[in-house]
Amino acid sequence: MIRMASGWFYLSCLLLGSLGSMCILFTIYWMQYWRGGFAWNGSIYMFNWHPVLMVAGMVVFYGGASLVYRLPQSWVGPKLPWKLLHAALHLMAFILTVVGLVAVFTFHNHGKIANLYSLHSWLGITAVFLFACQWCLGFAVFLLPWASMWLRSLLKPIHVFFGAAILSLSIASVISGINEKLFFSLKNTTRPYNSLPSEAVFANSTGMLVVAFGLLVLYILLASSWKRPEPGILTDKQSPCCMMGSEAAGRGSQELLVVQPVSPRSSALPRAPSWFQQATFFECWAQTSRLGTGPAFSSRLLPVCFSWWLWLLFSLASASQVLHSHEVLLALATLAAPV
């Protein structure tokens, strides 16, 4: 039985699910009640799909997918099913995001409105581009079996950092998008934004829900007591029984195991090469060549990276045809170009 020293985790999950559902439902209600509903014909009603799908994809589904490894059930047994769930939820989030982009670009092109000129659009397209790169790199390195353990250990902190960064960018894009939509909509025949009509109050409240959801996701991601334990290491909030098959679980004791940070020379962890423990990324690369593993590593890494890059370019070209807009491809190519 997997247990936690505190019930705060499950309370946080309940609160997170409630906030995520409210974010989506509030956005749907806003678009339905104040903006006239939904359609798929290039009109303003087609645009209304954009905020709903982007909130659902880039915030709610993305945030939920990021927390798969925080579930205590994922601490025991094989990791592959949880990897597949993590990748599948992110893929679903990405599909919703792409459909949301199709909606807004189709509406803009139908109404002869410029694309990608506002800060909101820059933040959003940057988040989507990083999301695509993050998913492809995660699939290639962490899901496919070709990558070595030291490479995964090297890239894991980077993968985690960009996961949190993409969520932060998505929240910033949603907030700026809500503000932009209110400025465009509340004018002429409506009460101005600064008089806080009911639509403005409701939309601002939706934005606050999105912020609260994002902050809770980031809190759960950063809480060390809720991370999947590494072999031989438990924090002061984790039970030894979650390490089934480890030395702590084998003892069968009732005491709570508290292990201080382990030094590189400790036998509690599988010993990593000394060059990996102390070197930077570039030092690691250089020393792997001297150790004779560099060429073999490169021969496996380069074809995967090259294939992934070709796939990404093909996907972007296909997306530009679907959206009938070359601005998307140009903007993403600009982001991808070296400085």
TrEMBL record:
Domain Cytochrome b561: 15-222
GO molecular function, one term: metal ion binding
A Pfam family recorded for this sequence: Cytochrom_B561
Subcellular location: Late endosome membrane; Lysosome membrane
Gene3D superfamilies: 1.20.120.1770
GO annotation, cellular component aspect: late endosome membrane; lysosomal membrane; nucleolus
Keyword set, alphabetical order: Electron transport, Endosome, Glycoprotein, Heme, Iron, Lysosome, Membrane, Metal-binding, Oxidoreductase, Translocase, Transmembrane, Transmembrane helix, Transport
Reactions it catalyzes: Fe(3+)(out) + L-ascorbate(in) = monodehydro-L-ascorbate radical(in) + Fe(2+)(out) + H(+)
Cofactor annotation: heme b
Membrane topology: Multi-pass membrane protein
Keyword Membrane listed: yes
Function noted in UniProt: Transmembrane reductase that uses ascorbate as an electron donor in the cytoplasm and transfers electrons across membranes to reduce iron cations Fe(3+) into Fe(2+) in the lumen of the late endosome and lysosome. Reduced iron can then be extruded from the late endosome and lysosome to the cytoplasm by divalent metal-specific transporters. It is therefore most probably involved in endosomal and lysosomal cellular iron homeostasis.
PANTHER family assigned: CYTOCHROME B561-RELATED (PTHR10106), LYSOSOMAL MEMBRANE ASCORBATE-DEPENDENT FERRIREDUCTASE CYB561A3 (PTHR10106:SF38)
Subunit structure: Homodimer.
Protein name from the UniProt record: Lysosomal membrane ascorbate-dependent ferrireductase CYB561A3
Organism: Macaca fascicularis (Crab-eating macaque)
